[in-house]
Amino acid sequence: YRPARTPEGKARWLQVRGRVIKDAEGISRVIGSTLDITDRKAAEERRDLVLRELAHRSKNGILVMMAIVSQTARRAESVHDFESLLSARLQAMADSQDLVTKATGDALPLTDLVARALTPFDAARFDLASGLSDVLLPNDAVVAVALLLHEMSTNAVKYGALSTVAGRVAIGLEATAGDVTVTWVERGGPPVKPVTRRGFGTRLLDISLRNNGGHVESEFAPDGFRARIHLPRGQG
């Protein structure tokens, strides 16, 4: 195989084969063929890229699952509690991965992810910023963000704004040229007590987005829990 360029400067890959035919007086002729295999080389490169991406996603998925099992085991008060928490978190992970699989391109609309993540928690009690529909998340970030939304929603139902009839959660957006900040603000719930240790969601996001520049800031304000999730912006 050898690369070549057309008169227009475009790169092409050629497969060249030849054979030298000799007679009693020496070389009499040379025969061979030249085949343009550019399309085949492009397909091979795409295949290699997909395999590398699959290996990368598999590794990240294993790390996320290890974090889920570890953090769930630490917080569960019984075997039944552990089973329920673990099943819910793995289901949230599976649902978000299904979105990644169905998505086309390298990014997923944030509204699709939010809608799927909030389905079990009465979506009517969430106030969503209109700008969420314009945000694309990198596929690498989808599972981690879905799990984080699931975790914060669960905590809101148990201890926060969604544990009361009048409580609500506002999901907003702060966007810049380079990244996206999703805000989570709870209102109308019981008084919030400060928490000194990092929760499951924060630990999980740190692990899942370590190589993507994502992180989360949380605040246990007296009038309601708040969080700011910083994420890289996907490309549409």
Write a compact overview of the structure shown.
This protein has helices at 38-75, 79-102, 110-118, 139-158, 200-208, and strands at residues 2-5, 11-23, 26-36, 107-109, 126-128, 136-138, 168-175, 179-187, 215-221, 224-232.
Which key phrases capture this entry?
alpha+beta, 236 residues
3D structure, described in words:
This protein has 236 residues and is of the alpha+beta class. The chain is 42% helix and 30% strand. The chain has five helices and ten strands. The chain has helices at residues 38-75, 79-102, 110-118, 139-158, 200-208; strands at residues 2-5, 11-23, 26-36, 107-109, 126-128, 136-138, 168-175, 179-187, 215-221, 224-232. The strands form three sheets. Strands 5-7-8-10-9 form a five-stranded mixed sheet, covered by helices on one side. Strands 1-2-3 form a three-stranded antiparallel sheet. Helix 1 (38-75) runs antiparallel to helix 2, helix 1 packs antiparallel against helix 5 (200-208) and helix 4 (139-158) packs antiparallel against helix 5. The longest helix is centred in the N-terminal third of the chain and has 38 residues, at 38-75. The mean pLDDT is 76.
